[in-house]
């Protein structure tokens, strides 16, 4: 049976699995989370040559110095005979933060405030872990100069990370990796308006982007829309209420549906053609896919539609 080497151990692999799946099947301890390349917690060091195309795919999103050092994401790496990999020490890229506050925004969504000196750009996210092994990705909903990091997360009862975070006591420590991602305010998008549209906890990065845009582009009109499937899924937070009081931003909420015209479509109709608008779209994969097309049909340029999809952790929340 074909095999790979991991930390001087020989492990057989299946043709259909990734390196991460192989390691987990053999009960190897390795940090992991999304298994989609976003959280970057499952990094390994590749020893020896590997096909350039395969390394390119397994190094998406990593820093240039990490790529040069042979670091790859094991969840995106396909095993091959003779492959040698080693686990890497996460200490240089991990940070601890203490829980300062936590509160429920509705029956499913919680806001978590962490004390940290880390810096990030509006729109970026962090990989968060309670036990140092299981990670989940959550976007910052505030600016770094606040002194704390605020995250909004959907709580899954019994979830390995989300439920543990919501149950953790104030003062408890968590592990962070990041900041990650490039869903940031684009200075090269020279448009007359900004539209921030998100559903569920996809609102979080939009809140940070709205605050940043008000600082950096004070003369640019901003529309922030939070979409929801039902009124039970809608929620409010202090940041949203504070933004609604600002002069240069319009804040709205609306229900949406996959097919039939929805309340959200009526709200978008009032904006008119979007040819002069930079659109930032965040939320569930189906929502982002659905409204990416609709925004384009309403006149938005493809080069001015920036998207961030929330990964589905239903089975591993």
Structure report:
The chain is of the alpha/beta class. 21% of the residues lie in helices and 31% in strands. It has eight helices and 16 strands. It has helices at residues 19-25, 52-58, 64-68, 162-167, 203-216, 238-244, 263-269, 285-297, and strands at residues 3-6, 9-12, 43-47, 71-73, 84-87, 94-104, 109-115, 125-129, 135-139, 148-154, 173-180, 193-199, 222-228, 249-255, 277-284, 305-310. The strands form three sheets. It has a six-stranded antiparallel sheet with strand order 9-8-11-6-7-10. A five-stranded mixed sheet has the order 2-1-5-3-4. It has a five-stranded parallel sheet with strand order 14-13-12-15-16, sandwiched between helices.
The name CATH uses for the topology of the largest domain is: Rossmann fold
Number of helices: 8
Order of helices and strands: EEHEHHEEEEEEEHEEHEHEHEHE
Query: Which sequence of strands runs across the widest sheet?
Result: 9-8-11-6-7-10
Name of the CATH homologous superfamily of the largest domain? Nucleotide-binding domain of ferredoxin-NADP reductase (FNR) module
**How helix-rich are the residues, as a percent range?**
10-25%
Structural class: alpha/beta
Query: What's the CATH class of the largest domain, please?
Result: Alpha Beta
Distance between the termini: 34 Å
Q: Give the number of domains.
A: 3
The major beta sheet can be summarized as:
6 strands, antiparallel
Low-confidence stretches: none
Q: Mean of residue pLDDT?
A: 87
